[in-house]
Amino acid sequence: MSNDYKKKVIIALDFNNIADAKTLVDKLEGEAYIYKVGLELFLNCGNEILLFLKKSGYKIFLDLKFYDIPHTVYNAVKSAGLLGADIINVHASGGIEMMKAAKKGLSEAQETVGKKIELFAVTVLTSFSSEDIKEVFDFNDNSAHTHNGEPENTAESIALHLAGLAKKSGLDGVVCSPLESLGIKKMFGEDFKTITPGIRLKENDIKKQNSLEKANSLINRRDDQKRIMTPSEAFRNKADYIVVGRPITRAAEPLESLKNIYSEIC
Ligand code: C5P
């Protein structure tokens, strides 16, 4: 079987220092292709980590989730592109004007760096449950916002709506839960890409693949993620990329954990 699926697994380098990030990259050498640098690592070591990853030949998802006025986001996306990111994201809830400004910044950066950079919009965070959705979006709990007593706003309906705005703005795709990936593909086409965090292996799969002692050290916790699926379920729902953080970064044996993820996919 080709190794192409390995190029669709983005590993989140969620650390507060470059030494820990480099240690993980070393441990996964030869098995990992794309790394995600998020707010924590970028705020602690800035461009240094991007330079290291680029020099080592990895693709970079710079996950800074921009959300600001269009002019500011235009400049932020352009700067992120010039730093060498391969994937950049903004919040879809910033609206069409903001996302179009992001796209303009991206095009200008692409011209300078001479490579394709992908731009994604975050829809609804995978850490949001239905209760969280209700708390944030059902701000007027009366008949105008309910249907047959049910809240109209669900994670899926909001994600679909925001994905529509991202599509209209000309973005490459969205970041969503694997639970919403298939619906988004059906509505906006196979070419409209999805990146899905909220990935966890099932306890039984880990137990099947490992000795009891090893399994216990690899059992994934849900942590703050609420709308989760396994890697294979996410790919069945047509995710173009999955993002995995703590199941690898917090594992006693990160390489074993990554290999378990790969075998669950195959
Ligand atoms: O550790 P875990 O696998 O839950 O990490 C998921 C990663 O994906 C984190 O780095 C988080 O910032 C990121 N992410 C997310 N939900 C989004 C976008 C990004 O969990 N909607």
What would you note in describing this structure?
The protein is α/β, with parallel strands linked by helices and 266 residues long. It has helices at 18-27, 39-45, 47-55, 70-82, 96-113, 130-137, 155-168, 178-188, 203-209, 212-218, 231-236, 246-249, 254-265; strands at 9-12, 34-38, 59-66, 87-91, 118-122, 146-147, 150-151, 173-175, 193-196, 241-244. It has an 8-stranded parallel β-barrel, surrounded by 6 helices. Helix 4 (70-82) runs parallel beside helix 5 (96-113). The longest helix is centred in the middle third of the chain and has 18 residues, at 96-113. The chain is globular. The N and C termini lie close together (9 Å). Cytidine-5'-monophosphate (C5P) binds next to strand 10 and helix 12. Cytidine-5'-monophosphate binds at residues 12, 14, 38, 63, 122, 125-126, 175, 197, 199, 223, 225, 243-247.
Provide a concise account of the structure shown.
The protein is α/β, with parallel strands linked by helices and 266 residues long.
Set down the secondary structure blueprint.
Blueprint: E1 9-12, H1 18-27, E2 34-38, H2 39-45, H3 47-55, E3 59-66, H4 70-82, E4 87-91, H5 96-113, E5 118-122, H6 130-137, E6 146-147, E7 150-151, H7 155-168, E8 173-175, H8 178-188, E9 193-196, H9 203-209, H10 212-218, H11 231-236, E10 241-244, H12 246-249, H13 254-265
Parallel strand pairs: 1-2, 1-10, 2-3, 3-4, 4-5, 5-8, 8-9, 9-10
Antiparallel strand pairs: 6-7
The structure holds cytidine-5'-monophosphate.
Cytidine-5'-monophosphate (C5P) binds near residues 38, 199, 245 and 246.
